[in-house]
């Protein structure tokens, strides 16, 4: 494990001299008190290895801040609306397809169930009541209303609520033969409109547990390919954009229902998987609001009729919606326990984030607990788990800032490979981790699903394809164009070469060196002051003009871009590769250029030393390990 971890960091440094993210983490920044004990320090790992960089990362993204002023302001002004869940505990819960009583103060409970059955995407009906249900009775259908009576202190009490459950299907009863090939479960859970940064702001415990304890990978350079939920989910679920699929929009001639789209769950279903799909926001259903919806249920378990029937806001009785949804997933895993029936599940939650800024934060603790349960119940052993969002928040006030534009384009997207997969394919996790900083898209998720269905570690990926599996090596030189991202969605900074004689270049390198020297001041007796030797190359990184100009989609289908925004960039970046003396240190640094007053500011987290320093810093090595990359001891050892 340790060994693999080292490799992974090494790879990312060697091949991504354009990314500073790893430096940020392992270097901790000079000013920060955080140290990593030097154990996995990149700088150390680089000793003894030569730095060859055959390709460079083409897509460089702006570093997003967690709490910029404008976001904190919006956040502070928003309130959390009371959830309004009932304080009375549900009398009954459904576990593994049977009714179970979970209250002790009510006795002689008897219930009747009213099954809720789908007629089509816009109608459902109630079926004849089933009476005489008691604890231990089997559920009558996936969705039903339960009306119960019972006794409490010799008084008669009543209870009513709705259940989304899993009634086992005949076709899977027979399926007891073990598959010849290992089949991995897929569990994807999403929240509407949550950028990567917003997820970290609103679900900090979940994010921490997910990435730090469960070692899941967040795709930091994940980039949307269109505006809105369908534009995110169609590429993920079909590998295509809406315009590439048959016309399904209401009111358009020849429009058809979406059943014949090449849904990924069909491929899973054909391979013997039980499938589940649902979203809580039924009134604005992703495939029903502008589109005609499904003629037949698209998956074995389809939440829509239930959500339509219950008309809830945030809660169902005492259960908040996020828990109702994760319970429904848990129940699928319980009813189809074991490897005979592989499972594909995707649930997408909207009501907390649709129109609210921070309502989602109420789900943080529960989501973390749920992830812990997935681990404790061994679900992570055979299951790819994906936590995701479709796109970032699209509040107008946020869009008025460049960070808001980037957040909109960079939803949270994270994946964890199953423990058994990790054992079978020891490089998979490192590859995934490396891809975290490469340009990825919803099309890639579709390709990843196909890869999961038929994983071949030896497959050579075809870089010409629009969608590439994130379990394989995503090319470092991938561009928005190659990845199928239109210019106004592309968050990669555009860059051009600068002449090394450009005064701006020298000034940038000097600003970094003076920052170095300021850190060396307290150690001036031990370490030499540094000065500029020569500049090797320099680039200017600028905000992509189409992103600055993009205001919104000017049609309700998100197909026509309104490029009338007049946002001006107020900063740019200078990336400079230079050598200092007397240590012959080679550094690559990204310096911020303020375009309003033309000032430059260097930041220690965005600087990497890219050649070996060997024993140069021996005199402070143990005392101040974080200065190793810049300290050249006045007394040098032979
Ligand atoms: C669920 O119920 C079935 C019978 O309906 C039983 O065979 C199975 O073991 C139960 N699973 C769990 C996890 O309790
Ligand atoms: C996460 O990674 C650490 C370090 O490699 C390892 O010790 C730990 O067991 C991993 N956790 C899980 C749940 O796999
Ligand atoms: C330029 O503007 C930035 C941001 O307002 C400020 O932090 C910086 O001190 C200014 N620099 C100079 C030289 O005026």
Automatic annotation (TrEMBL):
GO cellular component assignments: extracellular space
SUPFAM superfamilies: Alkaline phosphatase-like
Keywords: Membrane, Transmembrane, Transmembrane helix
InterPro entries per UniProt: Alkaline_phosphatase_core_sf, DUF229
UniProt cross-references to Pfam families, sorted A to Z: DUF229 (PF02995)
Transmembrane segments: 7-27
PANTHER family registered for this protein in UniProt: FI08016P-RELATED
Name recorded for this polypeptide: Uncharacterized protein
Provenance organism: Dimorphilus gyrociliatus
